[in-house]
């Protein structure tokens, strides 16, 4: 009897090891491919350091409209100084030997992981497939496609929309006696960590769909726990020091929970007829 109980558990461990090995090999291959354009990715992440982002263009448009309609208020608050802020070429700095090399490795690893996301999600699907029905196993292609796309959308949403906000807010503290001096490790590690967070945040609806199909969660269960989701979002966001970063993490995280609630309602496992 003891062997019958232990054997299935050992089979699960062997299967898990097999899937993890395939994932590691895929990430290494992806890292090798991503190494060739890691410098371009670093340059893209550095772009907000110039101070010129989509936020500055929006600000110029709004202030220009305010100057046309309310010239007195425009002059009183000296908004022309805000519009006339010149671009500044800021450089990242490093203080340890081989520090840029290790940063390039981290960027290549994350970019390589994104390149092989279909492989990673396919391995995850193969691991949980024994617990699915025959019809549900046919959903492997939609699952892998949507899960990979969701992670990429979350990462791009952060890099294009949120990252310039964070850097612009940080640079706003520069003054005559206070200048920015960004360390490359602190700058890139902060960015990569948030890319992962936003990618995983956008996976919440997919996770909700799977759990709903398994019958583990349902609409009622998730809807009645909104306050706990808001609290959990606040706690996760609170690990970041500044308020701006806290809110730009907390708001998308809670919005994805709301989407997950409706996903659970639409794709919930239908109860069997008596």
Structure overview:
The chain has one domain. It is an all-alpha fold. Helices cover 75% and strands 0% of the residues. Helix 11 (204-214) packs parallel to helix 14 (243-267) and helix 13 (226-237) packs antiparallel against helix 14. Forms a complex with TatA.
Stretches where pLDDT is under 50 for at least 5 consecutive residues are: 1-7
Q: Give the CA-CA distance, first to last residue.
A: 35 Å
State mean pLDDT (0 to 100 scale). Answer: 83
Percent in strands: under 5%
Shape, per Cα inertia axes: globular
Number of strands: 0
**How many structural domains can be distinguished in the coordinates?**
1
Q: Estimate percent helicity.
A: over 70%
Q: Cα-atom Rg, whole angstroms?
A: 24 Å
Biggest β-sheet: count, sense, barrel? none
Structural class: mainly alpha
Protein name: Sec-independent protein translocase protein TatC
InterPro entries: TatC
Transmembrane segments: 20-38, 101-128, 140-166, 186-216, 228-255
Subcellular location: Cell membrane; Membrane
Short description:
It comes from Geomesophilobacter sediminis. This protein is an all-alpha fold.
Keywords:
14 helices; about 270 residues; about 0% strand; mainly alpha; disordered N terminus
Blueprint of the fold:
Elements: H1 2-34, H2 38-46, H3 54-69, H4 71-76, H5 79-83, H6 99-115, H7 117-128, H8 134-137, H9 140-171, H10 184-201, H11 204-214, H12 219-223, H13 226-237, H14 243-267
Helix pairs in contact: 1-6, 1-7, 2-6, 6-10, 7-9, 9-10, 10-14, 11-14, 13-14
